[in-house]
Amino acid sequence: MKKILFPTDFSNVSINAFIYALKLADSINAEIITMHVYQLPQANYINVAEYLHEIYDVTELSNFENYKDEIPVLRRIAEENNLNHIKISHALILGNLIEEIQKITKHENIDFIVMGTKGATGLKETIFGTMAIKVMNDVKAVVLVIPERCKYEPFKKLLFITEYQSDDVQSFMKVKAFAKIFQAHIDCLQVVPQDHEDNDKNMHHREELMDDSSIKMHSVTGNDVEGIILNFIDSHKINMIAMHVHHKNFYEKLFEISLSKKLAFHINIPILAIHE
Predict the structure, then answer these.
(1) Is 138 exposed, middle or buried (0-12, 13-18, 19+ CB in 10 A)?
(2) What is the rounded distance in angstroms from the CA atom of residue 101 to the CA atom of residue 88?
(3) What's the pLDDT at 1?
(4) Residue 1 · residue 109 · CB < 8 Å
């Protein structure tokens, strides 16, 4: 059975992302492992030694009680969506979020990581939102990130961002397999900077991506990469964006673009980041 890791901070953003984890688990016959990672408080006042044990005990108990209270909420969401047949297990871990995600991903052979983020204007205002970016950058896994304003709908139109590099081809194979599960259409988009010399060195990679007539290839020239992609998402009614992790500078900017350029829309679709 495949495995989906669902890191949670108990927020509404995280709970919203759980629906995506459930739907994905149902589609690929997977189980879900939820995890909450917490850290002990940094006590730096005088004569703390005699109280340190009590502080840690109270903190650990509080985290345990909070997590225990959240588990029925997750189960109720599964039942409300007729997905209570999905196996769900839970892990409460003391440590660093990124390090613990890396450990459990390797130890449990995780297939997907699903997590929510504040997205748009809130990305840099919340710790968990920032963590989603770090997970995409640092964890070698397929990561599905759900911005807060996403409302679940079946994945029907996927956009794959490509530069026709060898890594893109490997990631694209995973995107194709993902799209097949949901019977989704794929658009591939390359943004070519102005005055860029096309020496066709990646032509064979381009041909590998074009081996399926149902996949549409698009090439747009311009220097406003993020703006071009966002406009493509809007005009083609894309409801998921996918890319290899070497595009990380793009998806870091993706959440800021509506502020810096005062665009009329935000990125409100899931992002599938593939890290090898």
Answers:
(1) middle
(2) 17
(3) 83
(4) no
pLDDT value of position 37: 86
Longest dimension (CA), the chain: 71
Domains along the chain with CATH numbers: 2-147 (3.40.50.620), 157-270 (3.40.50.620)
- Cα–Cα distance for residue pair 104/3, rounded to 1 Å: 11
Q: How far apart are CA 114 and CA 4, in angstroms?
A: 7
* Mean pLDDT, all residues of the chain: 78
CA distance 22 to 74: 10
Residue 121, pLDDT score: 41
**Tokens standing for 126?**
């919340």
Distances (CA, A) of 145 to 48, 99, 206: 40, 18, 27
Residue-wise pLDDT tens digits, 207-262:
555 556 568 889 899 888 778 888 899 899 999 999 887 765 665 666 554 433 33
User: Residues 6 or more apart from 144 whose CB is under 8 A from it?
Assistant: 20, 24, 112, 113, 114, 115, 270, 271, 272, 273
- What pLDDT is attached to residue 49? 52
In one-letter notation, the amino acid at residue 267 is I
Of 177, 136, 169, which is closest to residue 270 (Cα–Cα)?
136
For residue 226 the two structure tokens come to: 């993020």
